Amino acid sequence: MSDDTIRLVTIGRIVRRRRRLLTLLVVVGALVGYGTSMLLPPRYTTSASVLLPGAWEERELRTQAEIATSSVVIDRVAAALGRPKVSGVELRERVTAEVADGNIITVSGTADTPEQAQRLADRVAQEFVTFAAQILGSDTDPDAAARQEALRQLVVQTNRRITELADAADPGRTVESVQTRTDLEKLRTALREAVDRLDQADPASDRAVKADMVVMGPAARPAGEAPPTRTQLIVGGALLFLLVAVVGHLVAARMSRRLRTEPEIAAALGSTLLGTVDVPAGRPAHRPAGRGPRALARRLLGVDVRWDLPAPRKSGDEASRQTRYRRVCARLRDRLPASRLLVVVPDGDEIARLAAERLAAEAASDPSPGESSTGYPTLRVVEVPVSQPMLPDRAEEFGALVVLSAGSWTAGELAGIAEACADSGHEVVGVVLAGTVLAGPTRTAGRSRPAAPALPTADDATGVPG
């Protein structure tokens, strides 16, 4: 697993190098969203408000909101709209009630057309007000009302009796009579205050106020569809496919087992690194013919180019790049002077193939052709498939030089190439890594180089599958 930190530059690299594939996936996601919108009919939602006069606690308001969506109210709505066959569960899913500020309950209805949604919201509000008034009105206890009326009649009779006692007392002739009249008046006042407090505490009057609910006008006809709309589904499908594609690229990169560092690649091949060479970016890669429709589709989608490789670094001029190739040839000469080697390139590694061809051309341009003991080795380029690597048996060649690009192959694939070299009798004398660079200014290398001879392909090597 790669330990590279996922940064915005990584996301930008994915979008830039996989833009064709991402564009196709976005279009497919939009089509999937459009197909989903065709399966889901459009829905319209509108609301009606019900005002609850009086003093209500928050708990009571929540209870009234539950009553608005109760089965009794919903069944009455279905019967009033002429839809008795519609189940209460189905209709209840289209009706919601919420408590708003100011003792207001908002009742919402969802239907297939704006007209049906408006009728549903209005009917639910009306049936809710009717049912709530019935509940509040039925809370009055007939026995309690009768007892309260009897108490009022008793208070009236007591007032009359107090008046008779006050008139019967000797008005102002004795101290006892004055005191009696004063006590009777205090009793009359206390009794009147008790009756007033009893009237004020009457729950029936409070229920009457609360039962007077008001529908605050008809529901507005909806002008647009309720979410998710067709546009939202199309955009959501496109974004979902784009997100899945980007996340998939990131997960694949994190789980990748391709070797990137020089020591890991050299250890997998069981050899040493002889150097690194540069291949100018943008140079046309000559791909073998007959790759089939799958390879054509990969080229059209742009997935035949690795996206997780870093951007090519800047390079010097042609002379500096040629110097790298000559140094590799010099190291080969020091190891195996005047010998013949196979240059093994994994099939499909175009960067490595270009580097191997350049390296063979440099080796062919021996700077001291008259001194055979100090000349460059003769190199022959062969491409081997990594799935079933096979090399020609040892004949004139005395070893194999593996040329490949970093970050393209796993340890198992490179170990297979090393085993194929050992089976054919070729010792891996070294490893050369090839990388792409931005081409710098062109400058002559100080001497003219002869034209590179025609190089044999993998088909010319005995035992190499075409």
UniProtKB/TrEMBL annotation:
<feature type="region of interest" description="Disordered">
    <location>
        <begin position="442"/>
        <end position="466"/>
    </location>
</feature>
<keyword id="KW-0472">Membrane</keyword>
<dbReference type="InterPro" id="IPR050445">
    <property type="entry name" value="Bact_polysacc_biosynth/exp"/>
</dbReference>
<dbReference type="InterPro" id="IPR003856">
    <property type="entry name" value="LPS_length_determ_N"/>
</dbReference>
<feature type="compositionally biased region" description="Low complexity">
    <location>
        <begin position="450"/>
        <end position="466"/>
    </location>
</feature>
<feature type="transmembrane region" description="Helical">
    <location>
        <begin position="233"/>
        <end position="252"/>
    </location>
</feature>
<comment type="similarity">
    <text>Belongs to the CpsC/CapA family.</text>
</comment>
<feature type="transmembrane region" description="Helical">
    <location>
        <begin position="21"/>
        <end position="40"/>
    </location>
</feature>
<keyword id="KW-0812">Transmembrane</keyword>
<protein>
    <submittedName>
        <fullName>Membrane-bound polysaccharide biosynthesis protein</fullName>
    </submittedName>
</protein>
<dbReference type="Pfam" id="PF02706">
    <property type="entry name" value="Wzz"/>
</dbReference>
<dbReference type="GO" id="GO:0005886">
    <property type="term" value="C:plasma membrane"/>
</dbReference>
<keyword id="KW-1133">Transmembrane helix</keyword>
<feature type="domain" description="Polysaccharide chain length determinant N-terminal">
    <location>
        <begin position="4"/>
        <end position="57"/>
    </location>
</feature>
<keyword id="KW-1003">Cell membrane</keyword>
